[in-house]
């Protein structure tokens, strides 16, 4: 894996901004400024710098997949041989069911999360990728720890 250049050193204010953005991405600059003890102009400048240095890649809405009609979520692992990897990844990039994909070490080449309207829909999707390799599918019953933001390295534990 190619290492990216080291990110800029983040001070406590930058970490406060990051924590606020991760918990409430829609927060106004005025609210962020208040939480971080800065002026609105200084906060805007700091947020812009975090975006420019790619420390913050994007701020987006997290959608309840069940509320929009995707009642099944699954995590799929697949072993893909080298000649098929590019085609496989091209297929996944175009598949609206695929939420994320990770290139991993171990028995699988990739592990990715998909959503489907129902089990037949999931079965159909898996059928479209089986030509690339052997799949292993885990159906998600629930998510006791949802996706969450990162915390400053060295902080011993998350606050409740």
Question: Could you characterize the architecture of this molecule?
Answer:
- Among the domains are: 12-52, Arc Repressor Mutant, subunit A (Orthogonal Bundle), CATH 1.10.10.10; 72-139, Lrp/AsnC effector binding domain/regulation of amino acid metabolism (RAM) domain (Alpha-Beta Plaits, 2-Layer Sandwich).
- The chain is of the alpha+beta class.
- It contains five helices and four strands; from the N terminus they run H-H-H-E-H-E-E-H-E.
- Strand 2 and strand 3 (110-116) form a beta hairpin.
- A four-stranded antiparallel sheet has the order 2-3-1-4.
- It has helices spanning 12-23, 29-36, 40-52, 85-94, 119-129; strands spanning 72-80, 98-103, 110-116, 133-139.
Keywords:
elongated; Arc Repressor Mutant, subunit A; 5 helices; 18% strand; alpha+beta
Shape descriptor: elongated
DSSP strand (E) fraction? 15-25%
- The CATH architecture of the domain at 72-139 can be given as 2-Layer Sandwich
The overall strand count is: 4
Classified by CATH, the class of the domain at 72-139 is Alpha Beta
Order of helices and strands: HHHEHEEHE
Oligomer: single chain
Main β-sheet description: 4 strands, antiparallel
- Rg calc: 20 Å
Query: If you consult CATH, what is the topology of the domain at 72-139?
Result: Alpha-Beta Plaits
**Helix content estimate:** 25-40%
Give me the side-by-side strand order of the main sheet.
Answer: 2-3-1-4
Task: Give the N-to-C terminal Cα separation.
Answer: 35 Å
Provide a count of the helices.
Answer: 5
Indicate the mean pLDDT: 90
CATH superfamily of the domain at 72-139: Lrp/AsnC effector binding domain/regulation of amino acid metabolism (RAM) domain
Q: Which residue ranges are poorly predicted, with pLDDT under 50 across at least 5 consecutive positions?
A: none
């Amino acid at each position: 894996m190619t290492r990216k250049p080291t990110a800029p050193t983040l001070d406590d204010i930058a970490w406060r901004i990051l924590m606020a953005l991760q918990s409430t991405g829609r927060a106004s600059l005025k609210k962020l400024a208040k939480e971080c003890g800065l002026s609105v102009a200084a906060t805007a400048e700091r947020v812009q710098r975090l975006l420019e240095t790619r420390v913050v890649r994007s701020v987006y809405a997290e959608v309840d997949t069940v509320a929009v009609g995707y009642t099944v979520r699954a995590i799929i692992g697949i072993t893909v041989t080298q000649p098929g990897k590019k085609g496989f990844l091209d297929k996944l990039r175009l598949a609206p069911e695929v939420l994320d994909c990770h290139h991993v070490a171990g028995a699988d080449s990739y592990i990715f999360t998909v959503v489907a309207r129902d089990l037949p829909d999931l079965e159909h999707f898996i059928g479209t990728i089986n030509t690339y390799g052997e799949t292993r599918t885990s159906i998600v019953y629930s998510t006791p720890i949802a996706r969450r933001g990162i915390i400053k390295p060295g902080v011993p534990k998350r606050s409740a």
